[in-house]
Amino acid sequence: MSALDSDFQKIVKKIRASASERQEIIRLLANDVKLKSDIQGYVLKNNGSMDDGVMVFHDSIIAFIKRVFTDQHFILSTSFQQYIFGIAKNIWLTNLKKNNKLPVTQLIEDSNESGYDEDINQGLFAKDKIIILHRILKIMKPKCKDILLYWAGGYSMQEIAIHLGYPSEGAARKKKCECYKSLIEWLEQHPQYIKELKN
After folding, report:
1. What is the pLDDT of residue 40?
2. All domains of the chain, ordered by start, with CATH?
3. CA distance 186 to 199
4. pTM of the predicted model, to two decimals?
């Protein structure tokens, strides 16, 4: 897979060139043993089966191929493996939320993706503070709660825009900033929560 990561433009060209070349990339990704294992492991850890893991793995690859094929302005800011794993997490998260099997916070606590640097306030969004954060976010509107939880989980603005339906990365970033500002203003009025987050 290192060849993929070292020459993104060549891969993009192949995906957009023809059906046969897209199939070549799909086969290459489908043979990534580590990526498959990571996704299956994540699904198994979060109330899924081995078959669910295989399904999510393949669906994630197809979603990635479709994104590259249809979005002419697509820019990959992390590795293929990280990006596809992020897609897999979102697919499985959506499935779990739909079936009410697992709260969002448990999935986010399990998240440990590096490679995304969105200037996150580490003190506020550290994994051991997520439970407190979730309690605080209950007072916010659903859209703000969702975008801040995804952001806290380490997702890029690009991914958040895709999965929450924002028209662009910029729109998602603007909404995140508005919600984050509201959160900080609320915390300033409730200093007891700031103490909890700092402890």
Report:
1. 92
2. 1-102 (1.10.1740), 104-199 (no CATH)
3. 19
4. 0.51
